[in-house]
UniProtKB/TrEMBL annotation:
<feature type="signal peptide">
    <location>
        <begin position="1"/>
        <end position="24"/>
    </location>
</feature>
<keyword id="KW-0732">Signal</keyword>
<protein>
    <recommendedName>
        <fullName>Histidine kinase</fullName>
    </recommendedName>
</protein>
Length: 226
């Protein structure tokens, strides 16, 4: 709860800075919540039916996951920055959006021994003290194209408060994975075999996340024109 409060505090701070800038021009500010986390976006009119939109999205959450061999305590860290163009083909609230997203999303994971205090990795069994700590990470390409549609024009004429929504896809590509261990407390031959088994576990994790190259973006929120 403490970290969640800090996340919201960070977003509020960004919103405050953006609002100060927006008051100096015909700009719109929106706050939203969805699959990219908690977000703040600034809309800038470029033409009657075209806006530029820039935003930051942030959130952390914990969950449990596993491969065939290892159970993990995992934490997803959502960190994305949007640079989008919103086109309003019917000159109303409906929009088509496209652009690029800086994708800092990642998942960090720590292996959990079985109830009997052992790991079985690649068919070989190790005590928790022998294996030490097993860590995994899943990351994505830094830049991802985005296409979507939505509703809401934060800088429409005579606009005050409004509703905003996005439905789209971030093309993040296949993930890269890494699994490592530290603190092996066993004879050198066993630690060497463990290193080989950890590499096999990384291959298994890679296979598990293969195909998750599209990230759904669903967001709803409110906007305000200054």
């Amino acid at each position: 709860m403490h970290r969640l409060a800090l996340s919201f505090a960070s977003i509020i701070a960004v919103a405050g800075l953006a609002a100060t800038s927006a008051q100096a021009a015909n700009l719109g500010l929106s706050g939203d919540l969805g699959t990219t986390g908690v977000g703040v976006h600034l809309s800038v009119p470029l033409a009657q039916t075209l806006n530029a939109r820039f935003g930051v999205n942030y959130f952390d959450y914990s969950f449990n996951s596993s491969t065939k061999d290892v159970n993990y305590d995992a934490k997803a860290k959502l960190r994305t920055f949007d640079a989008l163009l919103d086109w309003f083909p019917f000159d109303n609230g409906f929009r088509l959006s496209g652009g690029v997203i800086y994708n800092g999303n990642k998942i960090d994971a720590t292996g959990k021994p079985k109830a009997n205090g052992t790991y079985t990795i690649n068919g070989n069994t190790y005590t928790a003290s022998q294996a030490g700590q097993v860590d995994g990470r899943i990351e994505f390409k830094n830049f991802a194209p985005y296409l979507g549609l939505g509703y809401g024009n934060a800088v429409a004429p005579n606009k005050g408060w409004g509703f905003t929504a996005d439905l789209g896809v971030m093309f993040q590509g296949n993930a890269s994975t890494s699994v490592s261990n530290s603190g092996c407390n066993a004879p050198a031959a066993i630690c060497s075999r463990l290193a080989t088994d950890i590499a096999a576990e990384n291959a298994e994790l890679t296979d598990k996340v293969h195909g998750y190259n599209l990230y759904p973006v669903i967001r709803v929120g409110v906007s305000y024109k200054f």
